Amino acid sequence: MLLRRVNVLLCLIIVVLACFLLISSLLPRTGFIAYSKEWIKDEVLHLRRNKLVISSIGVNGEIYEGDESVLDLGFWRRPYTGTPDTNGNTVIAAHRFLYRYGPNTFFNLDKVRVGDNIKIIWEGITYFYAVTETKIVSSTEIGLEEATEKQILTLYTCISLWDQSDRLVVIAERK
Predict the structure, then answer these.
(1) Can you tell me the distance from the alpha carbon of 37 to that of 47, in angstroms, rounded to the nearest whole number?
(2) Could you give phi then psi for residue 78, rounded to 5 degrees?
(3) Could you state, in order of their start, the residue ranges of all structural domains in the chain?
(4) Are 130 and 173 in contact (CB under 8 A)?
(5) Run of H or E including 62
(6) Under a CB-based contact definition with an 8 Å cutoff, are residues 111 and 80 in contact?
(7) Alpha helical stretches, state H, the chain
(8) pTM
(9) How far is CA 101 from CA 88, 106, 111, in A?
C-alpha cells in the first residue's frame, strides 16, 4: 500500500515537471537574470564597461579584451594595440555578421562616411573620434595594426559572410 502511494506521488512529480518544461518554453523571457548579472557587475562592484558607439549606423556594444574567441561576443580590442587613454593606434575588430543584425556587430560598417563621429567609453572616460578614411585591404595586411604617433582608432571587419579574403577598414582620429 505504501509503495503504491510513493509510486503515484513520483508519477505526479514527473508529470508536473514535464508540464513545467513544456510551458516554460512558451512563456516570455523577462531578462531579469541577465539584467541582475549586469547590475551586480556594474553597480555593486563599480565596474566600468568599455563601449564603442557609432550612432550613425546603430553600433553600441561592449569592447572585450582577450583572445580571438571574444569576437563571438562583439567588439574585440586587438592585443598589443593602443587604448584610447594612451597615444597610438587603438584597433578594434568585430564580425560583420553574427547571423543577425545587431548593435554589437559591424553589419553596417560600410555605411560609415568620412566625418562621422565615433565614441569610445574607456575606463569611465568618453573619447570622441572623427572618421578620416575608409578603405578595403587584403586580410593579410597587418600594417593597419602598427603603432602610430597620433591617437587614432582603427576598426575592421570582413567584407562579406562568404569572402574573408578582404577587410573593410575605418580609420578615425581623436578629436
Answers:
(1) 12
(2) -65, 130
(3) 50-174
(4) yes
(5) strand 59-64
(6) no
(7) 2-24, 32-39
(8) 0.72
(9) 31, 9, 14
Give the span between the Cα atoms of 24 and 140, in whole angstroms: 48
pLDDT of residue 10 exceeding 60: yes
> Which residue type does 65 have?
E
CATH superfamily label, 50-174: Sortase (2.40.260.10)
pLDDT of residue 30 exceeding 70: no
pLDDT at 29 over 60: no
C-alpha cell at position 64: 572585450
**Which amino acid is residue 145, in one-letter code?**
E
Q: How many residues does the chain have?
A: 175
Residue from 100, 108, 111, 106 nearest 156 by CA: 106
**CA 83 and chain centroid, separation:** 17
Tens of pLDDT, residues 104-145 = 789 899 999 999 999 999 988 999 999 999 999 998 888 889
Three-state secondary structure call for residue 155: strand
How far, CA to CA in Å, does 26 sit from each of 12, 20, 137, 163?
22, 10, 46, 38
Give the C-alpha separation, 67 to 4, whole Å: 57
Q: How many CA atoms lie within 13 A of 68 on its CB side?
A: 1
Q: Is the pLDDT of residue 13 over 90?
A: yes
The three cell numbers of residue 160 are 562579406
Cell triple for residue 136?
578595403
